[in-house]
Specification:
six-stranded mixed β-sheet; Nuclear Transport Factor 2, Chain: A; alpha+beta; 121 residues
Length: 121
């Protein structure tokens, strides 16, 4: 998968609906999100997204991409997302994509970490 494709797929997960999650998130996926139940599997994540308003826009910065193998792509980035009329949401994220034998890319891992509110030092 080239750089443009992977980032377009990632953006579609932020702005697309539950049907996009059904297409791209595998049942064997694990996610860590800053909302209960915090750690969830692919099906739990799909169900959670089904009841959540989608983001109307998202911007990525500090983008990093590595390809440990031809079948795996790991990305890391900072996301700033907004819903219509809502406040901005910031998070540092990672996603691991895996290519199946059918040449389809699916998410097998995703995490979001909001920036700290106060400095730890």
């Amino acid at each position: 998968m080239d750089e443009g494709q992977i980032w377009a797929l990632e953006e579609s997960l932020w702005t697309g609906g539950a049907e996009r999650y059904h297409e791209l998130v595998g049942d064997d996926c694990v996610m860590v999100l800053p909302a209960k139940p915090f750690v969830m599997t692919g099906q739990q994540a799909i169900e959670a997204v089904s009841g959540t308003p989608r983001w109307s826009e998202v911007a990525f910065s500090n983008q990093q991409t590595i390809h440990p193998t031809n079948e795996v792509a790991v990305i890391a980035y900072h996301a700033t997302a907004k819903r219509d009329g809502g406040a901005a949401y910031d998070a540092y994220c990672t996603t691991t994509w895996h290519r199946s034998s059918g040449d389809e890319w699916r998410v097998v891992q995703h995490q979001q970490t909001p920036p700290p509110i106060a400095s730890a030092s």
